[in-house]
Write a structure and sequence with these properties.
Length: 109
């Protein structure tokens, strides 16, 4: 029974912070500055997640080795592909293909 209460409590703790602002702001129009600010959040959060993994994938140190080169090259190729192609699945596939291709070619797999 305590496990069920724990699961329900964690579900509520996850759901409430997302739903309460929707209830509060559902009848209000957000100011243009707030909308502009919110538009920058997805790319900023994605960069905050991805950049450390690309620059320091092993032991959180920035160094160029056979193991780290595929991360860096695939990250740059994915970024450049994303600038020219709008379909996420194509960008994702190109990035993964470059990453695994380099790992196979360099024998780091």
């Amino acid at each position: 029974m305590s496990m069920l209460l724990l699961i329900l409590g964690m579900g509520l703790a996850t759901f409430a912070p997302r739903y309460v602002p929707l209830l509060v702001f559902r009848d209000r129009e957000l100011p243009a500055d707030v909308k502009t600010f919110l538009g920058y959040l997805p790319p900023a959060l994605l960069a905050a997640i991805a950049v450390p993994s690309v620059l320091a994938p092993v032991d959180n140190r920035v160094e160029i080795t056979v193991v780290t080169v595929p991360y860096l090259v695939a990250g740059v190729v994915t970024l450049v592909t994303g600038l020219f192609v709008e379909r996420f699945m194509i960008v994702w596939t190109v990035g993964l293909a470059v990453f695994f291709g380099l790992r196979w070619w360099l024998g780091a797999m």
